[in-house]
């Protein structure tokens, strides 16, 4: 069921806050990352469109099958440490599963003193000129906008991490490994900012496009039905990693029926072989996309372990080794 966007105009106020991650809704804001139309708009133009993920679920439990206006939703830190994290949701590159209000994971990071940003990014199937690089354009632009406005949110522009989930993990991995790749021409002064990050977290990520264990939907949506070998290699996140790959944390369930755990293993092995810091946590059960913030506000162990890992590698976030 497709809904008119006005139907959920107040959706940002509908999420029930949990004790450990509560933040005033008025403190959050949502804004476009591009000053005008994003680069490479197809014709006819794309129109923003979202759907309810569950007919009886919360009003802000939505996904976007078409994105014309890439957005950031900022969740300011309760007591800022100067750190920030860019959160990249999944959806198999067929849609983007993110609401308008800050996500539970964003609120958890904010409670740790880390200003968090949820990214709504464009999808290749809408015909953007950059094709499979359109999502990466948005991720790079988002980082640059965050850095250009760092003082506004009390952020140290050198202390920014990224975390991606499922197909968003593939995008986060490419963001981490392709900071030298210029995917679009500068549009304003924000684009003078770098796209490097302090650390990256990849949770149940789609990684490879070349191997038999590639996530079929992500590969099809990103590259089409019959991509050639050169293209699949170019978009396989575990290949051609830079010598300065950011410290990389991975979490996956061994019984994931959607994205095989072999994706995370391949990424870990590739980063470790550079050699660069890498940490992989595989749990026996959990399926795909386990709940990362419990009803009581308690985080999944992956989040706490990422915090410890990122802290060890310079991100200003409390960790067990703090």
Automatic annotation (TrEMBL):
GO terms for molecular function: hydrolase activity. SUPFAM superfamilies: alpha/beta-Hydrolases (SSF53474). Pfam families: BD-FAE. Keywords: Hydrolase, Signal. Residues 82-269 form the BD-FAE-like domain. It comes from the Bacteria. Residues 1-24 form the signal peptide. This is Alpha/beta hydrolase. It comes from Sphingomonas sanguinis.
């Amino acid at each position: 069921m497709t809904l008119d966007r006005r139907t959920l105009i107040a959706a940002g106020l509908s999420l029930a806050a949990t004790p450990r991650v509560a933040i005033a809704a008025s403190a959050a804001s949502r804004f476009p990352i591009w000053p005008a139309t994003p680069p490479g708009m197809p014709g006819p133009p794309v129109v923003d469109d979202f759907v309810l993920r569950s007919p009886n679920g919360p009003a802000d439990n939505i996904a976007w099958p078409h994105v014309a206006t890439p957005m950031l939703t900022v969740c300011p830190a309760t007591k800022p440490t100067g750190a920030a994290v860019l959160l990249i949701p999944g959806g198999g590159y067929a849609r983007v599963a993110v609401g308008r209000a800050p996500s539970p994971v964003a609120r958890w990071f904010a409670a740790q003193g880390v200003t968090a940003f949820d990214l709504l990014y464009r999808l290749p199937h809408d015909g953007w000129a950059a094709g499979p690089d359109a999502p990466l354009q948005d991720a790079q632009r988002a980082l640059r906008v965050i850095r250009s406005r760092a003082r506004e949110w009390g952020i140290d522009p050198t202390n920014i991490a990224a975390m991606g989930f499922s197909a968003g993990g593939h995008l986060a991995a490419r963001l981490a490994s392709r900071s030298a790749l210029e995917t679009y021409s500068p549009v304003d002064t924000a684009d003078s900012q770098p796209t490097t990050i302090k650390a990256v977290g990849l949770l149940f990520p789609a990684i490879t496009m070349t191997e038999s264990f590639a996530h079929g939907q992500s590969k099809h949506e990103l590259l089409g039905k019959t991509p050639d070998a050169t293209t699949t290699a170019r978009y396989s996140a575990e290949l051609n990693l830079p010598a300065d790959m950011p410290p990389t944390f991975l979490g996956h369930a061994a019984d994931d029926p959607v994205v095989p755990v072999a994706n995370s293993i391949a990424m870990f092995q590739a980063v470790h072989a550079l050699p660069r810091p890498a940490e992989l946590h595989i749990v026996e059960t959990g399926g795909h996309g386990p709940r990362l913030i419990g009803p009581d506000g308690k985080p999944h162990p992956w989040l706490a372990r990422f915090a410890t890992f990122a802290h060890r590698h310079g991100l200003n976030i409390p960790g067990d080794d703090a």
